[in-house]
Specification:
358 residues; 14 helices; 9-stranded mixed sheet; alpha/beta; 30% helix; binds iron/sulfur cluster; single chain
Length: 358
């Protein structure tokens, strides 16, 4: 008998008929599913969180194709090649993307638990126009030869869809490379398929080791967190795996003060540390999800600062081909002279502290 997570993947909801078992499909959703030749799919578990009657449901909008995906006024062609710096002179395996000297992203799989409509890697995982050769051993050899690589981010698709055996091989081999100091895994499965956090997985990637494993998941809306999520996160932490969140700022989904605050407070209650909020990148076909760039900083100022603990405050960044650009709110220092700083808080109140000469 296969494990529950495997059965969930085998029964991924990716047909109109399958979707109709969960929701009353809207005309736009129906047209997009029938007309757009795009890959889509959602685990039955995550589909069960959708609002049956509301096409504006944030979970529906993240997983069901929309005709708006055809509007592409601002998305950049070949986005992933630009963003991941793939067109450089350095010879690297397809699986290795590099923007920094000491860390790389290692793409190991092309499939996902859900196919997010806003994915910046959609050319690879959704549209599949970008073909990469994902040879795990080739990537491992490259990392072993590059002694400057301290930090490896395992990405995809969703790396936790690899079997326990493949993950164990991957993590064990990385941990044997003397210069690798830490391993990060980017996975939406703790949110969209928490059933994947099994004893077998814990054994494959957990346990005490000098080279820690961090999982960064993606949760964009409070309703995505359930009792199952809480249990899965606890299980990961119980075997030494740290869990963070990388939300994407999405128009009409989490770009209002109440939702943004509830999301971050609920993440922390679930033991997930809010790590990043990403501006929705200029990948093609996702214009309808994009807010003004300033929006994330405004939300951190208005929804989080002064309203909840600093632990719940993520860094707002725009990921680009030259690395992440922080875009945090900058209202704090109102004035400065040789005697003092004038500082402002989230309520607009000001205070002064002395300017101490260097
Ligand atoms: S799970 Fe990640 S890689 Fe897969 S579609 Fe969603 S955002 Fe993209």
């Amino acid at each position: 008998m296969s494990e529950e997570w495997v059965r969930q993947m085998q029964n991924q909801v990716n047909t109109l008929e399958g979707l109709e078992e969960y929701i009353n499909v809207s005309d736009d959703e129906k047209r997009a599913i029938e007309k757009l030749k795009t890959k889509w799919g959602v685990s039955p578990y995550f589909a069960s969180l959708m609002d049956k009657d509301d096409p504006g449901c944030p979970i529906r909008k993240q997983v069901i194709p929309s005709m708006q995906e055809q509007v592409n006024e601002f998305g950049m062609d070949n986005y992933l090649v630009w963003k991941e710096n793939r067109a450089t002179e350095e010879v690297r395996p397809d699986s290795i993307a590099r923007q920094y000297h000491d860390r790389i992203a290692f793409t190991v799989v092309q499939t996902c638990g859900i196919y997010c409509r806003h994915c910046f890697r959609k050319e690879l995982v959704v549209d599949q126009d970008l073909k990469l050769r994902m040879d795990i051993d080739e990537g491992l050899s490259w990392i072993a030869e590059h002694t400057e690589i301290r930090d490896v981010l395992i990405t995809g698709g969703d790396p936790l869809l690899l079997s326990d055996e493949k993950l164990e091989h991957l993590i064990t081999t990385l941990r044997e490379i003397p210069h690798v100091e830490m391993i990060r895994i980017g996975s939406r499965l703790p949110i969209v398929l928490p059933h994947r956090i099994t004893d077998g997985l814990k054994k494959a990637i957990g346990g005490f080791h000098k080279v820690p494993v961090w999982i960064n998941t993606q949760c964009n809306y409070p309703k995505e967190i359930t009792d199952r999520t809480e249990r899965a996160v606890y299980e990961l932490m119980s075997c030494g795996i740290n869990v963070g969140n990388q939300a994407v700022l999405l128009k009409g989904i989490n770009d209002d003060v109440d939702t943004f605050r509830e999301l971050h407070q609920k993440l922390l209650r679930t033991r997930i540390r809010p790590y990043y909020v990403f501006y929705c990148e200029p990948a093609p076909g996702i214009d309808h999800f994009r807010t003004p760039v300033e929006k994330g900083a405004e939300l951190i100022r208005d929804a989080l600062r002064g309203h909840t603990t600093g632990l719940a405050q993520p860094m707002y960044v725009l990921a680009t081909n030259i690395g992440k650009i922080p875009l945090m709110p900058d209202y704090y220092i109102v004035d400065k002279n040789e005697n003092e700083y004038v500082l402002r808080n989230h309520k607009g109140e000001t205070t002064k502290i002395p300017n101490i000469p260097e």
